[in-house]
Amino acid sequence: MRFDIITLFPAIFDGYLSQGLLEKAIQRELIDIHRHDLRDWAPPSVHRPVDDKPFGGGPGMLIQVEPTVNCIEKVETMDPRPMRKLLLTPQGRQFDQRMAEEFAESERIGLICGRYEGFDQRVIDILEPEEVSIGDFILNGGETAAMVIVDAVVRLLPGVLGDSQSNIDDSFSRGNRLLEFPQYTRPREFRGHKVPEILLGGNHAAIEKWRDEQSRQRTIQRRSDLLPEEPSSSN
Ligand code: SAM
Question: What's the whole-model pTM score?
Answer without folding.
Answer: 0.95
